[in-house]
Task: structure prediction
Amino acid sequence: MSAGTPAPPGVARLVWVFLLSLLAVPAWWATGQVPVPSRDERSAPRVRALPPDFEQMRRQQAETDRIWQVAASGYMQMEKVVYRSQSGGLEIPAFLFQPLRLTGPRQHAGLIWVHENIRGHVYEHYVPFVRLATAKGFVVIAPEYRGSIGYGRQLYDAIDYGGAEVDDVVSAVEFLTARVPDVDPKRIGIIGWSHGGMITLLAIFRNPSTFASAVAIAPVTNLFHRLAYKGIEEQRAQIDPHNRFGGTPAQRPAVYRDRSPLFHVDKLRIPLRVHIADNDQDVNVEEAMQLVDALRARHPTLAETEVFRNPPGGHLFDRRVSAHTLEPENTPAQRESWDKVWAFFERTLLGSAPWAPQRAPK
Result:
């Protein structure tokens, strides 16, 4: 070809594809022919899950324990304890927090503190709120229920989402009242967030006489909706890695219904407060409002519900703290949420308590 003569179309396309490949642009973008994956590629998982690093989890837990010990100093008594679950006798580690000064048998209310996340633990961001709870006179126990990280393979692999993990948390009540006789068994409250909020709701629906009142913040509500909204297989891999459910929602609807708090609101027998956020990207408002609407319709005098409008932090709006100081973020929504939580517990658990709220020494 002489200079200035246009290249044949086929040659021009080849040159164009070659130049694009140098820029790391897929050649199919230039040709317009999207490659079809082979049968093997279609059936292979796109991301291979890494095996859990139990040693790293153990180190992380040791650091968390150290932070809690430092944070407790001068504010509250703290110890790590272990008790047996009523489900299979599994040993459940827990944090036990008490006021600096106890006032005598059955003079204090107890709080069961249920952490968030399927694979989580008692996070450091709870520090300022547990401090305040003990300053108000509450004795707090925070279970590391089955599935929690930081305690080895046995507890990790025992995960039973919405099942035996609820028994683990409820078992903390008997342990608490036996271990700390200053706690009144008739004044036990429970509070939980997200997955812990789901556990809180299932705990009070299944054990209506165990607790005196409850708070659930951004709780998981309806597993049918959640799996359909977020992906059935992805969610099943997280919540049921050992297939204890025995199948999908279509195959085992009774199991998913039993573990969805929404379908048990008629069993509510104690005062309950629920907070949700309309900008929550984890427990989306479409799921959360199902519980709120059901409680408002069926228990208008027993249940208190609050929908926070676009609070900073969304799903975590009430728990965000400074990573350096562990002080609350102190947004208006966070302050309002906690003010209403404490007012609710003081009304339902403390009443005319014989002690005055304690101020921690500086």
